[in-house]
Known about the structure:
alpha/beta, seven-stranded mixed beta sheet, 7 helices, 26% strand, globular
Amino acid sequence: MFRPPSDSWLLVDVMRARGLARGARVLDVFTGSGVLAVAAGREGARSVTAVDVSRRAALCARVNGRLNGTRVRALRGDLFEPVAGERFDLVTANPPYVPSLGDELPDAGAERAWEGGPDGRVLVDRFSARVRDHLAPGGTVLMVVSSLTGEDETLAALRDGGLAPEVAARHRGPLGPIVSARAEALERRGLLAPGQREEEMLVIVAQSGDTA
Ligand SMILES: C[S@@+](CC[C@H](N)C(=O)[O-])C[C@H]1O[C@@H](n2cnc3c(N)ncnc32)[C@H](O)[C@@H]1O
């Protein structure tokens, strides 16, 4: 199987350890290569839907599903737009969360995979505010973000979205190459402490309080 980035692996470990995908209708938003969608299928999901704003990523997720023996319904669009009115037992997300140097999110190109806006939170917050509308009763959200994006802020955004979140796993490591390259700019903006060259990857699990 293809090797996904470490933040996605951390999320897959939690999904497996908690048996969250087994028998579940799974939605993977921000699917990219489709690694989370494929992993959910291999863990016994009842159905797997994957969404990405990039046409190429949606195609990639569909093909990776096929190559790995999993049917992935891959849709192109912004966040939950392609699944309007649908609900899922498990929603997974590895959103773009790197704090950007500029104010605007890119509207095309590879940068869309990582640029999260000035504080890295634009897509994390939009996702957190709307994900509950797509959860079935008792459903679960699994999201991976960096500590640079704000642990407390992310938990608060999910709480404001009507969910009960907690950190399920964390992993400290050196800054990735994209953040390293802009570390001094992020220091000047107070998003990195002076000399800080480490970040934590956080996997957040959030439950819907709704019951059937
Ligand atoms: C961090 S990458 C996902 C990585 C993926 N989990 C993997 O391991 O391959 C984020 C993805 O979000 C997609 N994306 C960015 N903005 C989006 C939006 N508004 N709606 C849906 N997908 C979006 C990007 O195209 C990119 O594929």
